[in-house]
């Protein structure tokens, strides 16, 4: 049996258990089992399948069969054109969040010396992507989870980012005035899942992703109330805030900022036309 035969068999097995992108996942898992070698499928037809690789593919399939996300199996994932380490201590970067990252990148490019806070940073994929895209930016990454910060530090080292360009530190987004610096841009993908939604999470999320990074209070708005009314950070006058929100809560979250006196509060839509990014300017 060749590597190609194993790939075809794995692709079918993934299809049979309902994996939507079975072809992509089979390709990634085979490449992972081969330790990144022969990632181009055309070479697989010429390579025999050895016993060790066969066993590893079986183990990987069994993990995926239990709904473990592909990103955690691989231990890495792509975001905004960069690859990041991911573990079950952090959320898996989503394509939808690239719109949030890009909003911060474009705003930072318009500033001479942007000072950016990535609040609730998790893996650091947003803040580090901004730092990579905007060389003149200074970026601070903050999270309340030491485990998440450890992953963010690994990702900073992976991309050669260190102080003074990038600072990674512990902080509580719900504690007012707890982050002692003044920023020109705040970007955040905070927890925003409601209590009701937490009871209906997909198993791949519920069983594997960190609930600390998901639960946003009974109505999912705890972190937006904090950012709008009693922020942990200081934002320069005219400074900008960009925050991702749930697909049903955009207007409610935006209204919190309007009521607190923020200026130019509006929502940006994602590729599907759903309002997902709150944009606001410091009063």
Report on this model:
The chain is α/β, with parallel strands linked by helices. The protein folds into 2 domains: 3-66; 90-281, 3-Layer(aba) Sandwich (Rossmann fold). It contains 11 helices and 9 strands. Strands 5-4-3-6-7-9-8 form a 7-stranded mixed beta sheet, sandwiched between helices. Helix 6 (125-133) links the parallel strand 3 and strand 4. It starts with a helix and ends with a strand. Its EC number is 2.1.1.297. It is an enzyme of class 2 (transferase). S-adenosyl-L-methionine binds at residues 143, 189. It catalyses: L-glutaminyl-[peptide chain release factor] + S-adenosyl-L-methionine = N(5)-methyl-L-glutaminyl-[peptide chain release factor] + S-adenosyl-L-homocysteine + H(+). Residues 109-198 form the Methyltransferase small domain.
CATH topology of the largest domain: Rossmann fold
Please work out how many helical segments DSSP would assign: 11
Average predicted local confidence, pLDDT: 95
Structural class per helix/strand content? alpha/beta
What coarse outline follows from CA principal-axis ratios?
Answer: elongated
CATH architecture descriptor name of the largest domain:
3-Layer(aba) Sandwich
Enzyme class: transferase
Protein name: Release factor glutamine methyltransferase
Catalytic activity: L-glutaminyl-[peptide chain release factor] + S-adenosyl-L-methionine = N(5)-methyl-L-glutaminyl-[peptide chain release factor] + S-adenosyl-L-homocysteine + H(+)
Domain Release factor glutamine methyltransferase N-terminal: 9-75
